[in-house]
Amino acid sequence: LVGKFAPFRSTIFAEMTALAHRTGAINLGQGFPDSDGPPELLSAAAEAVLSGHNQYPPLPGVPALRTAIAEQRAADYGTPYDPDTEILVTAGATEAIAAAVAALVPAGDEVLVFEPYYDSYGAAIALAGAVRRTVRLHPVGDRFTFDPGELAAAVTPRTRAFLVNTPHNPTGTVLSAAELAVIAEICERHDLIAITDEVYEHLVFDGVRHIPLASLPGMASRTLTISSAGKTFNATGWKVGWVCGPAPMVAAVRTVKQYLTFAGGTPFQHAVAAVLPDRHRWLDGLRTRLTAARDTLRDALTSTGWRCFACQGTYFLQVDARSVGYGDGTALCHDLATRAGVVAIPSGAFYADPASGRELVRFAFCKSPAVIATAAGRLAGFAAGAHREGAA
Ligand code: PMP
Ligand code: GLN
Is 6-36+280-386 in CATH node 3.90.1150.10? Predict the structure, then answer.
């Protein structure tokens, strides 16, 4: 590999999906659903293509979609946004994150992130010439959270922004009102911009509520909130995301975005606009199915000796590789693919130094009941074999 980004290599998701193809294993690695979103979404997209919505959309996004987003955020969270100046549609959340960091963090200044963090954050910060500062999430009981003292100690005079992800990939933590209040206080005290990645905002379980940081007192004026229709409507390949925030911050992101992709996905934007107002029935069903999948997988794992961490949201379940006799999650993932027929993600990929998360492995459970049941059976059998070998 050549070039400045050679150290980033290929993403762990591409690598593990290729491993699944090579081995024929069930792919619980890269997080994408194995079924489509609501039929109305698909027919709206087909209709948009056939009725001539195939040229560039306006730079900020199709007006009907921005209006639907404004209505959704006001209804769900009580946060008002002007569709004309405070909402920008992007090529997925990924572009929104990269453009936001590039637009708002001067080269050499620091971005705080909780670690583990989604892999594109490190690359987005590097692209901007900014500096990553990490604050570790630790398991307290079986749930990952941060230590407020460690967070306070991580801020320096060069810290400009806090990139926060809730519901959190890969830990499955949904930040509570109290945790968000600590984050808000830090942002206000040090005059930080908050960039919140809320792509799993609707995928929360067991009555846990997702709270946008922007909805906390005083935070709307300093927070950019990022969403993804890919996660909300099982359409990860469409790459329709958006940013909501104060007009000057959104204008800054728009300026960068116009030179990354300008704009795209016109028919998909129309389709998302058509279904966003009727999201509740789809999302209720999706949460019910994901809860069942999580429970099937978790029950099979815990009953055979795997240690699972709490999963309050997202579609990821993390486990401790040591519970099945492995000190190294990468070695476990290799053996799972070849011996159990299941691909997972070694969570070390979500750490600046992979050694820091080497004992963790992540399973994606956004799959059909039959696929989850088969994978759960294989993983239970693998654990039984691992324990037998350990005992021998
Ligand atoms: N943020 C997180 C936490 C994610 O897990 C993902 C994965 N899709 C993204 C952002 C990227 O979203 P999109 O596909 O809309 O670019
Ligand atoms: N967000 C997805 C995950 O965490 C992966 C997206 C990608 O392949 N880059 O699994």
Answer: yes
